[in-house]
From TrEMBL:
It comes from the Bacteria. It comes from Nanchangia anserum. One of its GO terms (biological process) is response to amino acid. This is Lrp/AsnC family transcriptional regulator. InterPro entries: Dimeric_a/b-barrel, WH-like_DNA-bd_sf.
Amino acid sequence: MPDSAILSTAVGELDTPYLELIDALRIAPRASWAELSAVLATPASTLRRRYRRLIENNVMRMGVEFYSAASASELSFVTIEADPAQREDVLDALCRIPEIVFVEDLLTVADAACHTVTPTLRDLHVRTTPQLRAIPGIRRIHVLPVTTLHVTGAAWSDRVINPSQRHRLERLGTDNEARRPQHPPSALERAGIGILARDARVPISDFARRLDLSATTARRLLRGILSRDDVRIRLQTSPAYLGYPIVATFYCHCAGERTPDLAVFAREHLHARMAASVVGTVSFLFACYLTHIGQTEQIQRRLRQSFPDVTIGDVALSMRRRKDHGWIFDAHDRIVDHDDGFGMVW
């Protein structure tokens, strides 16, 4: 596929050079084009052009997220059943609630799956859940509070680049910087975070101009923001563009002492993008990107072989993402808007 081929309206897997660039940027999101060029053995001008095409065609975005640490917030998984005649209105309304950071359509189990992040479970109960119940067309709400997040989607990698390249990129990554303890951000930091939320690779000259700062002061502010313990850079793109048109979430019952081993197995052997212990009708769930529906059987078979004592319940299938940490997706999986609420990450 030539560089210009990503202009197709239909969702299709990106060519390998684009996948390599996306994988590299997940690891080293603020690395310079020269640094990325040295690792990927591709001219910096070519990488810059590919990046620009991904952005211009709404295939990918990179933004910082200002969030509360896991110890200061509560993550819950929520499934929604809706009246068929009002399904679209329900999904649109879900995307407008700031505490709901993730929304996807479901083909099985329910109509929609959401992730909520609230300061406490009480906030979920007294503030967020009433907002859900007030949406016309919602028939049923099922909540699974998370006790432990074992595998996070922000850390998922497509494993396109080789181990040597990955090691070199990890040395360039912002997560290697010393992290500062949390403190309330200043007004200037909040303004900077607001700019970086939409473009984590904004040139320092633009960053300085928009904040009316000198380049030296802007650079110091940028370093300070990225070293905060409550700020992370997250790359967003539809899994369909990566070659994974289906997302499957497996709901399981397992004894508590088996959970750590199950989480490791899900991450290392099933390439899970998310795994968590929850409280409710199930005790553990994990999600995987799939290239075809038959992989659900393969995953269940491998899980039963390695963990015969684990019971697999429902499998929720999704082929469309509506919202992911502030970014809004259209029906073609293109990123078309941002909700301007600093998305949370876990």
